[in-house]
Amino acid sequence: MNFKKLAAAALAATIAAGPAMAELVFPSLSYRTGPYAAGGIPFADGYEDYMTLLNERDGGIGGVKISVPECETAYNTEKGVECYESTKGLGSLVYQPLSTGITYQLIPKVSADEIPLHTMGYGRTSAANGEVFEWVFNYPANYWDGASVAITHLLDINDGDISGKKIALVFHNSAYGKEPIRTLEKLSEKHGYELTTLAVDHPGQEQKSQWLQIRRERPDYVIMWGWGVMNQVAVQEAANIRFPMENFIGNWWAGSENDVIPAGEAAHGYKALAMHGTGMDYPIYEDIQQYVVDAGLAAGAGDQVGTVLYSRGLYAAMLAAEAARTAQEIHGTAEITPAMMRDGMENLKITEERMAELGLPNFGPAFEVSCANHGGPGEAMVQQWDAEAQEWNLITDFIKSDDDVIEPLIEADSMAYAEENALDLRCQ
Amino acid sequence: MFYREAGDFKTSYQDDAQTFPIKFDRYRYYAVIAVGLLVIPFAINDYWANAVLVPFLIWAIAAIGLNILTGYCGQVSLGTGGFMAVGAYACYKLMTAFPELNIVFVVILAGFVTAGVGVLFGLPSLRIKGFYLAVATLAAQFFLVWLFNRVPWFYNYSASGQISAPERTVFGVPVTGPETSAWAQYMICLLFVVVLAWAARNLTRGTIGRSWMAIRDMDIAAEIIGVNPLRAKLSAFAVSSFFVGIAGALFFAVYLGAVEVGEAFGIQKSFLALFMIIIGGLGSIFGSFAGAAFMVLLPVLLKNVLVGGLGWPTDLAAHLELLIVGGLIVFFLIAEPHGLAALWRTVKEKLRLWPFPH
User: Fold this and answer.
1) DSSP characters for A303-327?
2) Has residue A365 been placed in a domain?
3) ipTM of the complex, rounded to two decimals
4) For the domain that residue A236 is a member of, what is the CATH number?
5) Domain check: are A135 and A34 in the same one?
6) Do B297 and A4 touch (CB under 8 A)?
7) Residue B85: its pLDDT value, please?
8) Is pLDDT above 70 for A260?
9) Same domain for A154 and A274?
10) How far is B294 from chain A (nearest CA, A)?
11) Which residues 65-84 in chain A show a CB within 8 A of chain B?
12) How many domains does chain A have?
């Protein structure tokens, strides 16, 4: 029992230290360790760097400084819960755990504690229905949009007809990977392709049998819902069986430099979805260089600037900061509470002009969030890897997802949740 | 000085055979129970419940369960994670199939379901021993996780394969679901721990516990003196799985609320439970608690000291945490191969003579 007492003493000491007041707190539940660190590090760096930029250049948001307490989850749900509990008392405005498993854990908790949760392009897809999920947002796009965009892209390159084609889905065998299955099944009824699903278990280093099956069944296209080390292994395995890379499409979590560089030349032509632009050709990077990198304030090792997932962290931070700004305008106070932050998120308007002002012209789609629609427009682009130049090139514009298929799915799933938890519908 | 048998007169056999024969020990035990029941529930907050006490209590149950099988009966098991998953999924299916059934009974029933599954996977123990049995239980671990991932009936055909606990109440107080207050979460776990630890202690010093220990020490000799190995081994598997199943059910319903089988009940959970009883002490109820405390609280403590106290980067702290916990495990195994419980025993021996050792 000695350890318990020791733990008690130390914990009491750390909790008693207490937060400094008059700060906007954006906790970062990051993962810089474990099999998913390759994705977690750049995202966390981008998130933190953008907030540092606002602090250094603009003195925070609306004159109030931002603090980004970081907590390591290692993509593990129990640690995620511990992180949530340890940071929620700091006045945290919005949580972005970058993990679908932790998101499922947090949805009931944030609803009870009344703190917004923003799961950008991950999490529970049906949270797009704001009538049911008051505190959860997943704009600008969700998994089902992603699945639909991938299929639309295949339709586009096949002159609108993919009936009879064989499409295989290689997915991470978890809540995350299983998300697109239902959408892809519905879409296969509509477009007449044949769907095979191949599960890859955590963490995804072992995929020989799945790719053997792909080699045997010779699907026309492979779609992948992967994350972490699973992605690079899959790209390597695809190269090993000489699967044509241009027929292999990853979702937006399987489309970063980390995923393709290990396979070298063989990864040339690999495609992935993208929900925002990437690369360093945006004016904001001059400011980041000046105020963050050169000032020695860059998060982490500072070697991730400009990568795909760094851009995503930047994008997530930008949307959070804009929502906070909106909340300040609505409520006329600079020191907002989580409830005000939620209002800000629900009334968020991202326009082309605003993005240009922020130094990110055409970075993401222009969209509006509303009480009923927490999911945004659901658009994504397709990017392709150029192994010689070592860069991702966007090969399409924003593609709209198939709302005819996705809307009823979201409706059904969110209503089931509302019924399970006896919730009244909002926004009526 | 205070810790001694002298002057503590026993006038009945019952007194003489009690769990805590020394008065000081007895009062300490009552004090711990009193603090646990009467002080902590009023002082607890969400962080303490969710990050420290609830996982500790639940892991203590799992560790007691595994200790019955491995520590008392000598059957090495690597299937704890899988059996916890059985408890969790049984709990989920019962909760959703019988919404009006009280959660306490649901958890107990989940324990019985797990006991049944445990007996089934315990059958090979009648033919194989040691490492080979460990491999057979390892198969149980992988099979069960695969099963719960593969068959949609177990997760009620939800799109994501997650199971999540709906709200259930005990005497009108919610103990599962998002509206649960910290003290209710803590109390339900504590009550299960107290009752189960008491049951385990009394089982292990009765006939059945002695037959387990006879099997552990030498199964052929045990058979010759009249212990039925079939009954002893299978009862150990059943009781152990019952405990582990209850731990799994509480882990899912009270602690996490939503669970994904591969992540929550993977092989690392089996190893964690095994480390707990090895560090804590094989064949000791106190050791189960000490081991659970060590494995659950130490990482949280280190994290708070390194990140919260010293302000180090989170990734550095996370890596150091692995190093330190791993190093301490090795250190303890070298310094005290019989675990924290043996260390405690030595301390007690010394305390009896203190301050006049001669």
Assistant:
1) --TTSHHHHHHHHHHHHHHHHHHHH
2) yes
3) 0.87
4) 3.40.50.2300
5) yes
6) yes
7) 97
8) yes
9) yes
10) 7
11) 70-72, 74, 76-78, 81-82
12) 2
